[in-house]
Amino acid sequence: MTTHPATLGRFFEDYVVGDVYQHPMGRTITDTDNAWITCLSMNTNQNHFNEHLAATNPITDGKVIVNSGLTIALVLGLSVIDMSQNAVANLQFTDVKLAHPVYVGDTIYAESICTDLRLSQSRPYAGIVSMVTRGVNQDGEVVISWKRSVMVATRESGIGQNYFPEVKAPSLTELTAESSAEATR
């Protein structure tokens, strides 16, 4: 029997400059998502919540536009599984471009390309991964992009690994045997 440890994401050694990571999940934005982030962030621009006013905005096709803070947070979150699950720290975001409006009902996907790798000079347990990330909607329109650098743990560091608690008893093998014995009674 093999136990697969609770490890998620990539470590510094797993990245290759030029590799593209199409992040595995997409997310459809709801009206509730947009309303919550707009209230939470205290963004009072009525184009995010006033349909009557938004209908007069020539840029948004007369529709309520999704708060760009939500778009940024969502695309960042979609990229974490591949690009920064084992990050020690975010270091830099630059060149954020909001290329296309996002509306309630849009489904957003994300992909990243690794653009640079280097071991950290001051932190021997990590390296710097640089990337370009972009979010696209269900029609393939690029809605947002940015450059980002993160400090990612090396596998050798042990960071982000071996955190699953030691289970006291019974073992899964014992539970399986008990269940099998009960089923045959």
TrEMBL record:
CDD domains according to UniProt: FkbR2
Gene Ontology molecular function: any one: lyase activity
Pfam family, one: MC_hydratase
InterPro entries hit by this protein: HotDog_dom_sf, MC_hydratase, MCH/BMMD
SUPFAM superfamilies, per the entry: Thioesterase/thiol ester dehydrase-isomerase
Protein name: Dehydratase
